Amino acid sequence: MSETTSPYLSAVDYLRKIDTVRSPEGIMVDYKGNQITRKAYWTIIDYYKQYFKELGFFYGCGQPIAICSMNVPEFEFVYFAALELGLIASSSAVSFLASDVIKHTTEKEARTLVLSIEYCYDPKYEQFEVKEALKVLHEQEGNNRLERIIFISAGDYLPEDQEKAYKEGLDYEAIIKELELPSDIEIVYPGTIKKYSETTVLAPSQDNMTSLLSQDAVYSNTGGTTTGNPTCAVFKHQNVLNLLQAHEPEVYPGFPVKEGDRELLLIPFSHIGAQFFVLLLRRRAGACIVYNPSAFYTPEELIRCIISDDINSFLGTFTVYNMLARYDGLQEGCLSHLRVPCCGGEAIPPAPTAFINERLQWAGSVPMFTAGGSTAIGGGIITQYGMAEQHRRNQTGFFMPGATAEIINPKTGKVCAPGEEGLLYVNSPAAMDRFLNNTEATERFFSYTDDEGNVYGTDHDLAQVVGEKHPEDILGDRQDPRIFQMNSRPQDVVRYDEATNRYYPGITFGEDGLLTAVDLDECNKLYLLRNKMLDHAEVSAAEALVIPYSKGEKSGRLVCDVVLRDGEDAEAVLRKIYASFEPADKFVPEGILFLVNFQRNPSTSKREIVSLHNVREGYYRVNDEGNIQLATLPEYGDFVWTTVDTVEKRIAPLPASMKEIREAHRDFVLKGSYHQS
Are 585 and 593 in contact (CB under 8 A)? Predict the structure, then answer.
């Protein structure tokens, strides 16, 4: 759709116009019982648009703003008002903001930061040291300074009585004063925009009527979950609109979320999965977003929220579903409202997924829908909508309408035959336009062109074609009929060298930034070793990784870290795991570490892989004589084994600081310390 023929000014303009044919009294937001109707919703966004215009923003200005917000309704109002005006929304997790506030603000030319004030005083966020992060703004000079911080609060848009109770005793002036912000930064206090009474939104002038679809809409940090070095993917309004239009009912009747459905928001807005897949696509479908932050904390709270809030849909990580399925308090039929349980992110293990699906169905739900694809490719590019339930066993499905892919053999550069594993390259109308201020990274990403001149992008995920859809499922020329399976990511690939008895990254990148040729048949995937751990019912969580021989090494020891279900005996499980390996197996962990739990990234719930690399002791093995041995691990050299009588669990290490993660990213290319984008 070109900008000269489009009836839409922006992606948000498209959503607004869709809603004009829906009931104005339909519920768009439910925040602890405060139900905001469709009519009120767009009126509130008009307040925010007018407020931004009076700050000097205007249609098509292209000014970036940075948003670091909790999952609260005000994010939507800020986000949609900014997009509809033509501002560029740059969102970040609070952990990334704290590690590099400049990267998330002025480096992207953002002069305005929207920040949840809870991050500044709530004890849960002490580890992020937001105060210290904001202090670096003192060091900025000239134009490279932040001009304004708009504080928002989770207390706003609660029901009136809850809002009053929430704010009782909170002294916003004192909290902000404690931050010791530069004196020349404009401070906007929580609740300011909500109280704004001007409702007249001036229409854009004729000069501003040019379509925004060809302009930047969203800057999304990608690839930084485990590295701490997020790269910025730029999406134009046209990219976002393409995603929305691909899920129109007449184009994609298999999309399961319907008008009036209730979506529980779990994934933080700092991630494109929440913005695109949850917020935008649910808004396009006419669903109601239910904000219930307590659902984050425990399986009990999650189940309670699903039941008490009549939840039909939510998008969660595999970790969330694994936790939910293994919770002893799950009862038969208790999740009967749940029709669209969605899981995205990294490739998920088949055996635990089968178990999760069985438990979900027993509890009254349907199996998980799993979506695959990197942020840069456009979010959940591989879908399972319309596919039979037996396909919902791992990250297997077909591409959304308008997108297609090729699987390339990394050794030959040729297109793989069906069933052959290679690297996934995707051509999608919803893919990012480029990496911000990084031509080299953009060229590496869009690195394959087919015979017809179509350009494909890749994050070097491993995948294969495993079949074709049934003819009745194919949506005409807009949908690739092939069924794809994503197997793992490049940092999961290692190869064993007999001469050195070490494991090396199987996929690496040369000085030119291009992938070095590698024969995948000579490699093993840490993903598969993790799956083998999870095949044991006693194991509730696992991670396979390579511990460097020394700092800076690109080789190391193959180990597994596991968490057992409550009541399981670590010694018995250790013996069972080692008994499951065959003598010919090369990829046998040198040791197994039993953890009480995994520390997780608070923004994504993913395991902090880099921090696990810092563990240098506590690994157990069963030797050829059947003895249990404990490793001591010097800074350099091999494990030193001592025969012991008992197996003990350890407390997981704290998540690595962003400084440590950045250093690890520079020092070595290993599991969890490299992400192409």
Answer: no
